[in-house]
Design a protein that fits this description.
Helices cover about 70% and strands about 0% of the residues. The protein is mainly alpha-helical and about 100 residues long.
Length: about 100
């Protein structure tokens, strides 16, 4: 029966290597599968970080513009919050898709 098994499968070093490899791939706390999941999550978090940094830059520019220019502040209040002056009428036009 032992004659049918290839010699490299009977080698104790190969068997230990195979056992360690299986342990590292599936069962270890820092397994390759866990490392792959963490790498994927890291990529997603970096994408979110870049998005939020862009949003912060855009909002900082908008705040700077609104604090420096009263006309821009008035335009922003009219567009976003539908504010109006006394005696004015505001008509909201909703576009149907």
């Amino acid at each position: 029966m032992w004659q049918k098994i290839p010699s490299f499968l009977r080698n104790k070093y190969f068997l230990v290597f195979l056992a360690v490899l299986v342990w590292l791939v599936f069962f270890d706390t820092h397994s390759f599968i866990q490392q792959w999941r963490m790498h994927r999550q890291l990529k997603e978090l970096k994408t979110e970080r870049d998005f939020y940094r862009e949003q912060i830059t855009r909002d900082s520019l908008a705040i700077e513009e609104l604090t420096g220019d009263p006309d821009a502040l008035e335009r922003y209040a009219r567009e976003k919050y539908l504010m109006k002056r006394e005696g004015e009428d505001v008509y909201i036009v909703v576009e149907e898709k």
